Amino acid sequence: MSGRRLVHGVRLEVAGTERVALIGASGSGKSLTAAAVLGTLPAGAEVGGSVHVAGVDVTGRAPARRPPAARVAGVGQDPAAALNPLVAVGAQLALPLRAHRGLRGAALDRERAGLLATVGLTDSRRVLASTPGELSGGQRQRVCIALALASRAGLVVADEPTTALDLVTQAQVVALLREATRDTALLFITHDLAVAAALCDRAVVLHEGTVVEDAPITRLLSDPQHEQTAALVRAARAGALPTPVGATS
């Protein structure tokens, strides 16, 4: 970007139904990496290497120009910015269901209600008729997750989706993501190793645009190899680290 290399030497793989956390401090290059995968890099930024999704080279290709097999869905940290404030949730959910899955009529109505139930919004009639401003922050983020699931993308990229939420809602959204991505791959972007430990199996630590560690969460917590990882572990433990996925208490 502007002749500067902001992220370099990053090799990142997310397989099958794996849940991988990309962790680092602010400015480490996490969101740029996520944008490269999503195809939403800012103007002036470009990928020097390559991005493959489901075996398809999608380097530099906007989301609309990618084939269905290489579809990637995103969940951001600000649901208010991600949702159209003037359009009812029902109409916004209908867009990907029509465009990507060809649903209409009763089938579309059933799928919208089912998606909302999946993300814990059981009062589907009210939610579908509401505009985003009529919902709480946690409810809006749940709608964003439902939108990500609507296209049945093989990979979901969640970029700091819990940052703007209170601790109770944050825990609910993490539990929801864990359940909702059982059948898809997840790349979870965060600066908080404690949150990552509650959700992901493996973590990739990014520092100043470079991967400095890549290991199972349990190994990172017990034996960090890089000083940046050790600092993240100390911060996580100071915040009452939850039991990592796959670990026994």
Model description:
The protein has 10 helices and 8 strands. It has about 250 residues and is α/β, with parallel strands linked by helices. It has a domain at about 20-80 and about 155-240: Rossmann fold, CATH 3.40.50.300. Helix 4 (about 105-120) crosses helix 6 and helix 6 (about 135-150) runs parallel beside helix 7. The chain is globular. The termini are far apart. About 40% of the residues are buried.
Topology of this protein?
Elements: E1 19-23, H1 30-38, E2 52-53, E3 56-57, E4 72-75, H2 79-82, H3 89-101, H4 105-118, H5 124-129, H6 137-150, E5 155-159, H7 167-180, E6 185-190, H8 193-197, E7 202-207, E8 210-216, H9 217-222, H10 227-238
Membrane topology: Peripheral membrane protein
Family: Belongs to the ABC transporter superfamily.
Subcellular location: Cell membrane
Structural shape: globular
User: Span from first to last CA?
Assistant: 45 Å
Q: What is the β-strand count?
A: 8
Q: How large is the share of residues in beta strands?
A: 5-15%
How many strands, what sense, and barrel or not for the largest sheet?
6 strands, mixed
List low-pLDDT spans: none
How many separate helices? Answer: 10
CATH architecture of the domain at 19-82 and 153-238: 3-Layer(aba) Sandwich
Q: Indicate the radius of gyration in whole angstroms.
A: 18 Å
Mean pLDDT, to the nearest integer, reads: 87
Strand sequence of the main sheet, in spatial order?
A: 4-5-6-1-7-8
Supply the CATH superfamily name of the domain at 19-82 and 153-238.
Answer: P-loop containing nucleotide triphosphate hydrolases
Fill in the CATH topology of the domain at 19-82 and 153-238: Rossmann fold
The computed structural class is alpha/beta
What's the oligomerization state? single chain
Return the string of H and E elements. Answer: EHEEEHHHHHEHEHEEHH
